[in-house]
Specification:
CATH topology: TIM Barrel
Oligomer: single chain
Strand order of the largest sheet: 1-2-3-4-7-8-9-12
Helix content: 40-55%
Low-confidence stretches: 350-357
Radius of gyration: 20 Å
Largest sheet: 8 strands, parallel, barrel
Distance between the termini: 18 Å
Order of helices and strands: EHEHEHEHHEEEHEHEEHHHEHEH
Strand content: 15-25%
Number of domains: 1
CATH superfamily: Luciferase-like domain
Mean pLDDT: 92
Length: about 350
């Protein structure tokens, strides 16, 4: 597998801390101002990307604040100059024509740095309470596949006529087109069989939830082997990082967050009750104790700076290009990672590249 340049991203704190809500070192804050400051800091530190998850209602506890993704992505596009901005989207919440127009606008505001992340909804009340309804797992993916095919063609400047199971679109074109490339990038999340088919057909990058290296390598091998038109698929990994001078110090910090996370048991019970049990992400996350969302510390990025750097290089060798990272407390740990792990990973890769010439 070709070795694409390694990239690091950070999850925006759209619904507060990722590890534990009752952490004295990380007060709950899902405000626009906090998200703005985090992303601007990430860009200044050298992070390559940010992911803004999408919820209209806080998925853990509905009376907690929740950032709105797409308006925030547009604002961040205007405020930043280099970092990639990835906005998640649940297809049932937006008609594909409207969403394609929004995506093109943010792409042009950002001067070619925008991407959308197609996700299959798992939080039932978000759709049910709106009267949209929550379809069966495979039906949601069938809807999403038709939906993203429309968005991809419209954002690529095509004049589209389409009649399918869910949409009837006639002679529709969006102007201006993408001024910087063919269209914004498309990331796809989800690990079920329908999700794998969808990403092979329509994705540019597949986001894999944090899990051990062998499991990630098997997922990459499966999806990379599927028939696909166009350029090869790229791969990203979600992971929660706890890095310190020594493995023992990192494990101590890990235990602190595990203990704090136990205080969130009532919130986690709400999340489980609201989640479609067929969602593979939730099945994966129950395999072992962990910190963070979307697999979190299950990826094993807990240890000394050298240990974490070595594990990142192993995932990269297996095909992971983008590491979308979580930290707590977010801003202090993001800075620590940039200062200590960036040079260990990027320096090693640069040395390897020079020595292979």
């Amino acid at each position: 597998m070709s070795m694409a340049p390694i990239r690091f991203g950070v999850w925006a704190p759209v619904h507060g801390p990722r590890a534990a809500h009752q952490d004295p070192e990380e007060p709950y804050n899902a405000s626009w101002e906090h998200n703005r400051d985090v992303v601007l800091q990430a860009e200044a530190l050298g992070f390559d990307s940010t992911l803004i998850a999408q919820h209209t209602i806080n998925p853990h506890q509905e009376d907690l604040d929740q950032l709105e993704t797409w308006s925030s992505a547009a604002a961040l596009a205007a405020l930043t100059s280099r970092i990639e901005i990835i906005a998640a989207i649940k297809p049932y919440l937006f008609h594909p024509v409207v969403l394609a127009k929004m995506a093109l606008q943010i792409e042009n505001i950002s001067r070619g740095r925008f991407a959308l992340n197609l996700v299959n909804a798992w939080n039932k009340p978000e759709l049910e309470k709106a009267g949209i309804g929550f379809a069966e797992h495979d039906d949601r993916y069938a809807y999403g596949k038709e939906w993203i095919s429309i968005v991809a063609r419209l954002t690529a400047g095509e004049r589209l006529t389409h009649k399918g199971e869910n949409f009837d679109i006639r002679d529709y074109a969006l102007r201006p087109t993408d001024l910087y490339r063919v269209r914004p990038a498309i990331y796809v999340g989800g690990e079920s069989e329908p999700a794998r088919d969808l990403v092979a057909d329509h994705g540019d990058v597949w986001f894999i939830n944090g899990q051990p290296l062998a499991d990630v390598a098997a997922l990459i091998a499966d999806v990379a082997s599927r028939p696909r038109a166009g350029v090869p698929l790229r791969f990203g990994l979600s992971a929660f990082v706890i890095a310190r001078d020594t493995d023992a110090e990192a494990e101590h910090a890990h235990q602190r967050l595990l203990d704090l996370a136990k205080l969130d048991a009532p919130i986690k019970a709400i999340q489980r009750a609201n989640t479609d049990p067929k969602v593979v992400m939730m099945q994966t996350m129950q395999k072992s104790p962990r910190v963070g969302s979307n697999g979190g510390t299950a990826a094993g990025l807990v240890g000394s700076y050298d240990t974490v750097a070595a594990r990142i290089r192993e995932f990269h060798a297996a095909g992971i290009e983008l590491f979308m990272l979580q930290f707590q407390p977010l801003q202090a740990e993001m800075q620590r990672f940039a200062e200590e792990v960036f040079p260990r990973v990027k320096g090693e890769l640069a040395t390897r590249t020079v020595s292979s010439r």
